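User: Could you check the structure of this?
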Amino acid sequence: MVIAYYFGDTYQADAYLAAFIIPNMLFLFLTTGMKNAFIPSYLAAKETGTSTILFNQIWKVTGTISLGLGIIGMFTAPLIIPNIYPDFQPAAMTIAVQVTMIFMGCVSFVGLNAVFEAYFDAESQYTVSAISQLFVLLTMISSAMLFANQIGPYALAFGYLAGVIISLLFKLIIMHKQHILQWTAKIQRQEVKAFFIVFFPVAITVMVGQVNLAVDNIFASYFEEGVVTYVNYAKNLVHFPQAIFAVTIGTITFPLIAKSYAKGNIKQLKGRLEQGLMVMCYVLLPAITGMMLLMPTIIQLLFERGAFTRAATLATTQVAYYYLGSVIFFSLTVIINNGIYTLKKGHVVMWIGLGSILFNLLCNSIFTKWLGYVGIPFASSIVGFVYAISCYVFLIRQVGFLFKLKEIIEIVKIILSLIVMIIAIRFIANIQAYMTNGMFLMITIFLGVLIYVLCSYILKIKSFYFLWNTLRKKDNKQMLEEQP
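Assistant: Sure, the predicted structure tokens are below.
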């Protein structure tokens, strides 16, 4: 929203969004990759009483590696960016190169933040990570409001740098109070080596999504000015439910899956995987369905102001529709891949992910010639489907078939609830002309959620009761651990 307001669909927005791609590969490599590798290893070490030692080994080595990556990235950005986006005009190229260098300067702070957030998540202290991420968001918004008119997109990059530093200081204060940090402990090479053998395949897998986004941006840069912006805004908006619901559900269930495996209870592990997938479907499907029905109004409300025109709204809406398939498939793989990582088979996901990059290149080459720039999101949805199926097939070969008759019945109930919700939303749409977009969305979302929940109650959907009990239970962690 901030980028759209200040820079619309101009070359400045294109350059900033393109510049963020490569640094964000490293950010995801360090953050999500660290969580997926660290949490199972930390919980396993906790069973033997060596978790504190492991944690202190990892944050020191990760800090050193991320510092090196940041320095290399800053010096190589002027060489890499012009080769990735050769069609950028000179002004856009200058912004893209310099913003990339600023973001590369953030890598060392992001690396340490990643280890500390993984530790807090492993200890079920989820609010620490949430608050620290809020610091980054607030500093970026504040910096844009104060300096965007003077220094353009650089304001957002400097705001991000300030945010990750503040976030790191916030975590250090908490960890100092918990007496968890051991500054002088020596590095045990064998222990660190064993961890990073698990970490690197997982982290590379996490980068795959960002590499595929880079592929999308490269193909988008071949079209007219603004297409890079449409692709990025549409993808970020459509994948918002994944960022909120899929990541949250995955974060909560991952430690439980890992604990089941650490105890050797495969039956319980399968139960947690099935439960995670069903909850994901229950929450995600209505969110995506509602977004699909309300997409033009949502984009108009969020972005159509300042430099962002009506034509840009229509173009972004068109792209967003084609991204809907990708959010479904990639959200489900959050749970599927958590199971694979728990089995310490992350290298398999890595190879599937690397294969998806080649497949994405092929799909983009075909569909952009056929459909124009909307072929970019359509290719992402096709790639997401193939990626999800591949990961699921591998997982069930390891633990056995997951979805049985009772899960199929639950999905049918969810679909019936969705149908009723869709009918209600279509009926409410008749009064849209008599109110503002904001008011219409609030009323529609409220009534849509209410109707979906009532249908869930009437049809006795188990995921609904699970979430209801989670909200009512005072000790949510204990309640979750009691689930099969």
